[in-house]
Design a protein that fits this description.
The protein is of the alpha/beta class and 385 residues long. It contains 16 helices and 11 strands.
Length: 385
């Protein structure tokens, strides 16, 4: 009898987390949930706990602790914890084999570091971790001999394209982007778009933050930064292609001019499952790709209209804590846009001004990242007025 792999899911109530639970349910002979972690949604977390019977659940928001406890009062077998420190500790639990990091934002950094130091396999879905502290994370992963398996559909596609390539160098990464809902908009139109417009993504069902980041193409900028750290490729070797059909999830070009790509219908369960099962492929009850249905198109991104993408490239070229500054400012303006306190084009303007004002550090430590994150948030909030 094979022992089931024990998985801790950070961000179990979000889009990635709920789909990961579907994968685990489909392969319950192979995987078991050891811990479920959520930020705020106590009711859904309790519901998930009843269904998947984890050893423990953690709610990040301490104000929701009593509610969660009462919801699971009749389940003494499930331990209930709260707060950031509890999240850091749960990933270190001895039985855990894999940690799926699908929390949103800077909050995902500390638990990822704790999981690496506890030598857990990381299934990485929290973009901000590598955006903020890519260099540190890669150093730690090497030091503790830990695998980081990408869950983002694009990075999973790149990863799937280099499996079996050994030491063959990557000549270029072709990172695809849907272009979001505003691909064909003019600058004048972009000036007046609303959050309702931005939340209507043409090809993917995602959480609110990443959907806005996708509309501004900041999400793609973050993925460029992630790609540099995951695959050790310099920014000038990463090309972004707008591909509205979201069928080619990304591609890799090699020294001989060969290009390998991974294609499929837009379904996040595939990259989630591949991270869980690597190097094996397991059956997945998803729709199959029909290449007769639509043409596959590719366009160059407009960096003037999608200034956030240009800022992400710039921050990566400058290095140090600059991507951390961009991430923090973006978290603030993204939230402000969702709360109707900031215009769509204003997001990029405020991020750029924050980059100018925030203290630059070329060789940041973990403590620098924490301090930078706080300072950049404060500056962005001030700029919002």
């Amino acid at each position: 009898m094979m022992t089931k792999r024990q998985i801790a899911i950070l961000g179990s109530t979000g889009s990635i987390g709920t789909q990961a639970l579907q994968v685990i349910e489909e392969h319950s002979d192979l995987y078991e949930v050891y811990a479920l972690v959520a930020g705020n949604r106590a009711e859904l977390l309790a519901e998930q706990a009843r269904k998947f019977n984890p050893a423990a659940v953690v709610i990040g928001n301490e104000d929701k602790y009593e509610l969660l406890q009462s919801l699971l009062a009749d389940r003494p077998d499930i331990k209930v914890y709260c707060g950031a420190k509890a999240i850091d500790e749960i990933v270190e639990a001895e039985p855990v084999n894999m940690v799926l990091t699908a929390m949103v934002g800077f909050a995902g950094l500390s638990p990822t570091i704790h999981a690496i130091k506890a030598r857990k396999t990381i299934c990485l879905a929290n973009k901000e971790t590598l955006v903020v502290a890519g260099e540190l994370i890669c150093q730690l992963a090497a030091q503790y001999h830990v695998s980081i398996l990408p869950v983002d559909s694009e990075h999973s596609a790149i990863f799937q394209s280099i499996v079996g390539e050994g030491d063959n160098a990557i000549e270029k990464i072709l990172l695809t982007a849907s272009g979001g809902p505003f691909r064909k908009f003019t600058m004048e139109q972009l000036a007046t778009v609303t959050k309702a417009d931005a939340l209507r993504h043409p090809t993917w069902e995602m959480g609110a933050k990443i959907t806005i980041d996708s509309a501004s193409m900041m999400n793609k900028g973050f993925e460029v930064i992630e790609a540099k750290w995951l695959f050790g490729v310099e920014p000038d070797k990463i090309q972004v292609l707008v591909h509205p059909q979201s069928i080619v999830h990304s591609a890799v070009q090699f020294a001989d001019g060969a290009v390998k790509a991974q294609l499929g219908v837009p379904d996040m369960r595939l990259p989630i499952q591949y991270a869980f099962s690597f190097p094996k492929r397991l059956p997945l009850s998803s729709a199959r790709l029909d290449l007769f249905k639509q043409p596959l198109e590719f366009f160059e991104p407009d960096l003037e209209k999608f200034h956030c993408l240009a800022l992400a490239f710039e921050s990566l070229c400058r290095g140090g804590n600059m991507p951390c500054i961009v991430n923090a400012a973006n978290e603030i303006v993204n939230r402000a846009f969702l709360e109707d306190r900031c215009g769509f084009l204003q997001m990029g303007e405020i991020i750029e001004k924050t980059m100018e004002r925030c203290a630059f550090d070329a060789t940041p430590s973990y403590d620098t990242y924490v301090a930078t994150d706080l300072e950049a948030r404060r500056i962005a909030k001030e700029l919002l007025g």
